[in-house]
Amino acid sequence: MKPQETKFSFVYNEIKQCILEGQIPPGNTLPSSRIYCEQFHVSRYTINRVLDALRTEGLIDIQPRLVPVVVSTKDTCEPSNTIFEILKQKDGILQVYQTFALILPSLIVFALQGCGVEIMPHYKQAMKALRSGSISGRWHIISKLEYDILRIGGNPLFSELYSTFGLYNKISFFTENCPYFSEHFLQGSVSTTNIIDILKGDDSLTKHNQLSNIYQELTDSIEKALHHLSETTPECPVQNGLRFSWNPMRGRDFFYSKIVDDINLKIGLEEYSVGVYLPYEKQLAKQYGVSLSTVRKALSELEQRGFVKTLNGKGTIVVEPDSTKLHQLALNSGYVKKLLRYLHALQLMVLIIRPAALSSVSQFTRAELDDLSDRFTSPSSIYLIDIIESIMKHTALEPLHIILSETNRLLEWGHHFTYYPSKKHTLSYLNKQVILAFQQLKEGDACSFADSIAACYRYILVCVKKNMVEKYKFRNLDGIRVPEKC
């Protein structure tokens, strides 16, 4: 397994980039240590080490019993150098905007359902900013307001994605240091007042369409601004790429957890069927490149979940899921958190797979369609896996591809719906839905194809939630909402 990035280096780089990119302007305070602990899933000790390092670099000022304040970074980089760095990454920056123009409207509209924008922590500040003279400052507040909406909306993956968007969109440069962008977008037809009015709207479809138009106009303006900078900058630099990254498991992706996830997946797909012995511990240790103690910890967790049983002198055998153990797991906070993460990932996938599926339709070749048709012949297979891999293969926007891949990785840890008595019925129904979607794909009916793929994940979410709440009494899952069809 690949060496893991340390928690300290990850948190340090994330907060430092937020400061340097102007997400937290000079003179503003950082979020509290408690908020950072929750956001990055680390201890207060790690956060304190990071803050000390940032203070040493002169990026923040820390006074006793006060929240750290960002120090001006104006002298750290010449404007010409900043433009040069922006242009080196212009293709990647544009792809970030294109990706989030596709997915953010759905996330914001869903997060706002049953929740008024007026109760958001930054709402009053946003309304006050509307009356101020600083146009760029208004956009900083709108970003905070949108983050509030996604954070309070009930799915932490939404706000994590939005934070990642902020790390890569370079919005502070465009709003504060790019006159062309200010003239053509900030002072154009789109205003921050319009956005708040849209967020207050009652009709979800209207709200989605209006937000989509705004994000598309923002993306078009960013593209024009980047083109203008390229045309007016002598010796425009060669692209070195913007390496977009989003890892929702960072801080929780322990080696033993990865082994649990992988073996869980293989059990769900019946690579390891009931009655089959897993490879010996030494073989697993060699296969995953870890120690024996790590393998034993992974096998112990699998046994706690009721999927395997270790027999002295024989090894570890796959068994029928033990419902009594699953009832006990309802009391295990660690397992409940993973289950919530799984359901949140399903919720996210329902909302983001549609635009990806929609744009992939024209990319499929006749040979690929024939290959998929051949794969959709085994009744015991999960057809959704094959079709999703094909969709991701044809996802040209790298940030969207990474988001889909990471969300899909979160779904691999259980394939919960395959473990329980309704498995055969569930898989049969799901495979029929994929066959329907495949037929729509072959006919070139892009909208119906995209809707059908999203419906597959919606169906899994409904099944897993119902099973866990009604049969295994996971009452804290009642609040997980199922996205409706657009």
Q: What shape does the CA trace take?
A: globular
Number of strands: 4
Task: Classify the secondary structure makeup into a structural class.
Answer: mainly alpha
Strand content: under 5%
Total tally of structural domains = 4
Distance between the first and last residues' Cα: 40 Å
Biggest sheet layout: 2 strands, antiparallel
Radius of gyration, CA atoms, in whole angstroms: 24 Å
Sketch the topology as an H/E string, one letter per element: HHHEEHHHHHHHHHHHHEEHHHHHHH
Share in helix: 55-70%
Strand arrangement across the biggest beta sheet: 1-2
Q: Indicate the low-confidence ranges by residue numbers.
A: none
Q: Please give the count of helices.
A: 22
The average pLDDT value, as a whole number, equals 86
Domain HTH gntR-type: 5-74, 253-321
GO biological process, one term: negative regulation of DNA-templated transcription
InterPro entries: Bact_HTH_transcr_reg, Tscrpt_reg_HTH_GntR, WH-like_DNA-bd_sf, WH_DNA-bd_sf
Keywords: DNA-binding, Transcription, Transcription regulation
